[in-house]
Amino acid sequence: MDDKTLFAHVGPLDNKDQTEYEYVSFWKDVFRRFFSSKTTIVCCILLLAIFLGCMIIPAIYADAISGVNPLAINAKPSAEHWLGADRYGHDVFIKAWSGGRMSFLVGLVAAFCQAIIGVLIGSISGYCGGKVDMVVMRIVDIFISIPYMIVVLAIQMVAGRGISTIIIALVITGWQNTARLTRGQVLQLKNEDYVMAAQSLNVKGVTIILKHLLPNILSVILVSVTLAIPSAMFSEAFLSFLGMGTSDVSWGSLIRTGMDVRDLYPLQLIWPSILLAATMLCIQLLGDSMRDSLDPKLRR
Amino acid sequence: MKTSTRLLALLLAVVMLFALAACSGDTNTSSNGDTSNSDTSNGDTSSTGNASTGDNILRIGLAQDIETMDSQQNTAEYTQSVAEGVTATLLREHNGEYLFDLAESYDTDDYIHWTFHIREDAAWSDGTPITAHDFEYSWKQIFHRDEAGKVYILFDGIQGYDAIAEAMAEGKTGDELSAVIDENFAVKATDDHTLEVTLVSARPWYLSCFASPYMGPIKQDIYEANGSAYGSSVDKFAYSGPFYVSEWAYNEKVVLEPNPYYWDAENIKLDGVEIYIVKDVEPRVNMFKEGTLHFVRATSEYYTTMPDDVVTFEGSSWSYLLTNQHRVNTDGQMVNEEISALMANRDFVMALSCCIDRSVLFGSVLTDPTKFGTNLIVSGNLPLNDGLGTLVEDARAKRDFDNPIPLTADGELAMEYLQKAMDTLGYTDASQIPEISLVYSQGGEGQSICEFISLSVEQFLGLKITPEPVEFGVRDSRVISGDYDLLLMGWGIDGVDGSDLFQPWYSDLFCTGWPTAHPDEYATFAEMMDDLNTTTDFVYRGELLLDIEEYLVQYGPFITLNFTGDCGLQSDLLHDFYIREAGATYNYTYASLG
Amino acid sequence: MSALPGRNPPVPAHAFRGYTQDMAKYILRRILISIFTIFVLITVTFFLMKMIPDGLFSDPKMSEEARQRMRALYGLDKPVIEQYFIYIRNLLHLDLGDSIAYPGRSVMTMIYDPATGNGLPTSMRLGLCSLVFSVLFGVGMGTVAGLNRGKIWDKVVILIALVGVSVPSFLVAVTLVSVFGNILGWLPTTGFSTPREMILPTICLSLGTIATLARLMRTSIVELENADYIKTARSKGLKRRTIVFKHQIRNALLPVVTVLGPLSASLLTGTFVVEAVFNIKGLGGYFVESITNRDYGLVMGLTVLFGTFLVVANLLVDIIYGFVDPRIRLAK
After folding, report:
1. Which is the most buried residue in A209, C29, C120, C287, by most CB within 10 A?
2. What residues of chain C lie within 8 A of the CB of A241, using their CB?
3. Cα dist. B516→B328, B511, C194, C295 in Å?
4. pLDDT of residue C327
């Protein structure tokens, strides 16, 4: 038996015209606000351009960055090599684009994995509370205190040196922040009426977390994941600087070699640095903008 | 409002980034023009520096702290840089010649039995005399020193070493070991000023060992008071050399002052030596430019930008790619059979070798002064006072060896070799050949060399070689456990003799599996080595050295890359400073400033 | 903590007792947990290090016996469990053992060398200078920007903050050294003892932190513009200066305090790069070197030190939290 038969509708039949504002769904509103800023649009375009550049340019000009080109070793900028060539005769301009692939890979994969692990552990810990929470938080504390270089080293011993090692190390040492954040949010929301209501209806914990809690903290997590991307890229560059990076071509390793030759061939340092910094900047600004548009207080 | 602010900020930030970039671009463009500037500032500092020239103190930059002052614990280059100055030896090498140090003369008829006459005025820095007994004590004590594990093997040329090594392998220590040493070790102080030494065979080049700091004396009472901490701080060491250490601030600097009791103190021109530890190359070079330091090691890039300040020294280290022909795991079972088979195939190795353009690699990619060649022995490897040194050179001039390894890359030849190898091993297509890993120790130029090789091999043969960077110590532990496919190895000689370079293959020190994979080839080589180690005919020996070299180049379990010299940035003020060929350590004993 | 007489209703004495008891209990619990954390950290690192093969005794020139003897010399031949208990026992006596790469040198003297004052004090000085510098500038800049939203100062601060978060510190360091040291010759580029020497390293190390703090402070000030109590204060006709200093800044500082813990940690790791570029004799150089050298004693010592530092920093932040926000303290 449904409501309509029980309750008669009183009042004007067609009251649509009387709503003052058009109903806008939360995400639609977020979307609208997100793209209302010119900066965001510029950032999006720039980031997309860099990303596509990294994917497409090296694929087209693969020849310019493979093998050894003895004639072009450390060549000066010319029509053929816009920004000159490096010690193997590889085109500096194109090589930096190919380095971006690795950096994006590290950034995206590490941030994503951190988020998954962090959210999982954080929400369980926050929701269960009590001893579980206590134990999990201690584990988090310990993980936070282990210098990540030791973790990198230990994993390198087992898995060898490579991009995957760096990603794994970043995930192992990076999920705690998301976990803490999630836990904090869950703790706050746990006492909200709708969660209590669900609990009193004997809804399973997993369902409560997935259906009621996560959607409500999704925005916070989204922002933190976005901001984790540049920090992962940073870490990769930092490890390369210390000589603990990979031998794969990445922005970090290119900047590292560029550092060595900066007096002689500054472009080898500057160009990958610009790409890296621009990417960082864009993601950072997008993250900010995302946070602003997800903030319900600012909802218009 | 907010939006436009952000947009503006973004734009400004991008502009700023470019400005930053432009700034550092300016740095570099102007740093070339700036050389004149820095010259004037150099002039300035050297005018103030002239005051410091007045104080006549040599200042050197080192990339790493010395580990100990005691060279019997460690012969690492950094350590030796101080050990050379604070340790007196029987002889002292100076610019390729052997001068008498604590020994005022020596007698030998056959280069087997040596008698050294120690100076009357030889003294420690506290004024007490150094006697022949100190040498005997020191050379015998080394076998008791657990911390001297890296060094005692260098005494293997002295008769009785084998018996001692055997006793040690049996686990003998303390008095038991002492008994074995006293009975067998042919080192004897007959009185305070006479030291008799017997070598296992005629070794004229052993002069260079007698001149090495690890063969210097240690002072019994101070050593016994400190044990393994001997040499770890200023007051835990007895100084016998031309200098003593007055201050050692760990990780910061070592200050050396002239030792007034050194027998030749009047000929020491420096008023002191200060060794600064500056880990990063950039601040090191900056300190050199400012005139604070007189000598630093740098990297190829700086050598290219500052050609006027570069000095080069004869080198004696060799770099090559080891090929693991019989890779076994810790249980002795063979692993990676496919790759081992490839590595054991001479044609395959030649194919790789032909891809490497040594002239481009060491001429353009790396610009250090190296000799890229396939010789294993540099000329003048026996710089002996009595003229034996030219023997190898003479012998080489007379022969006409057609080296199969090209100095420039030869893609067609490489393909030919590869085809042959594939036919032998049953591959129909190059894509079936598995990926090969190439281990190198990071830091320095290993990365460039290995990336270059990987790129070249892919270019010419389409094979994949994956460079695998590891830490220095890890590289070594993988060498001694044979855990690699290809590995970039550097090797220097301890004494000034080419045979040192063959020794690793003789004992298969690098676990290449050569004796197992090619027993016949190894047997031929071993026979020549035995001959080399026993012969007393030095002209024949010179020929034999070259024979072995040629044999190894053709059949050895490695790909030769280059001979590296040594170089650094040196101030014009500094004279008579050089880097010793054996051990590659700084020699500043008779250096002067001004 | 005490309420000003006359303004608020008198607080019953037992409430205070409850408060201090609560607080003491909370702090005690946090301290115990921290000690436990440090202990587990030590254990985990110890066994982690034991998993890693050492590279120190792998000189191909050494014979196998020599290798065994050297391992025995450093007690590495004993079973790992025994080594662990020995380590813990020594640690309780503040003995971190000896360095393996530098014979005869104890890890303690490497961390703090009384003769030269190198090591920890230098790193701490660098870290503290940067922390003070970044808090002053970060908070100051953030406040200025927040209060002048949309004006020129706001834009300048945003600009600096954006550069700070998007350019890696080693690039900043290299640029500063080139510009101020090599080209202009205004400032020395090595060392960290005289005030002039301290300028460049401090700026390099602080830039990222300043950026973070400025952004945080700015957001927080802006958010408070619309807070009810600020509105109330305004409607009461309080002077703008009073509102800003008494209410807005003080409250806006809260989120800043909470990030100080992790921030000091990032300053600590940041010193690795800065110390290398400016040849500063702190701990950073040792840390990287000890890892590449496989110098167990030193790695362990430094990990314990850094770990303890982090745990203590987090502990302090937690305690401050507890004072600031009673809910946290009471949450079971």
Report:
1. C287
2. 168, 170, 273
3. 11, 10, 63, 35
4. 60
A130 in a structural domain: yes
pLDDT in tens, C204-234: 888 888 988 898 888 888 888 877 888 888 8
Question: Tell me, what DSSP letter sits at residue B299?
Answer: -
Which pLDDT does position B529 carry in this prediction?
Answer: 92
Residue A19 has what DSSP assignment?
-
Closest residue in B to C274 (Cα) is: B280
Residue window 394-453, chain B: list those with CB within 8 Å of chain C.
443
SS3 percent helix, strand, coil of chain C, rounded to 5, is 75, 0, 25
Looking at the complex, report in whole angstroms how far the Cα of residue A191 sits from the nearest Cα belonging to chain C. 12
Residue pLDDT, tens place only, A257-272:
888 787 788 899 999 9
**Based on the number of CB atoms within 10 Å of its own CB, is B570 exposed (0-12), middle (13-18) or buried (19 or more)?**
buried
Our count of domains for chain A comes to 1
* All domains in chain C, ordered by first residue: 29-117+286-332 (no CATH), 120-282 (1.10.3720.10)
Q: Is the pLDDT of residue B419 over 50?
A: yes
CATH of the domain at A258: 1.10.3720.10
Judge if pTM exceeds 0.80.
yes
**CA geometry: angle C245, A293, C145, nearest 5 deg:** 30
Q: Which domains occur in chain B, in start order?
A: 55-276+568-593 (3.40.190.10), 316-564 (3.10.105.10)
CB contact under 8 A, B365 and A87: yes
Q: 3-class secondary structure for C223-249? A: HHHCCHHHHHHHHCCCCHHHHHHHHHH
Q: Is the Cβ of A263 closer than 8 Å to some Cβ of chain B?
A: yes
Q: Which two tokens stand for residue C113?
A: 């060398």
Range name among B176-180, B265-269, B568-572, C167-171 with the lowest pLDDT average: C167-171
Burial B39-51 (b: 16+ CB within 10 A, else e): eeebeebbeebee
Query: What residues have CB less than 8 Å from C305, skipping those under 6 apart?
Result: C111, C120, C283
**pLDDT-based confidence at B137, cuts 50/70/90?**
very high
Q: Is residue A6 part of a domain?
A: no
> CA nearest A218: which of A40, A67, A26, A14?
A26
Distance from CA of C5 to the nearest CA of A (A): 34
Does B226 touch chain C if contact means CB atoms closer than 8 Å? Answer: yes
Residue with tokens 């990603």: A167
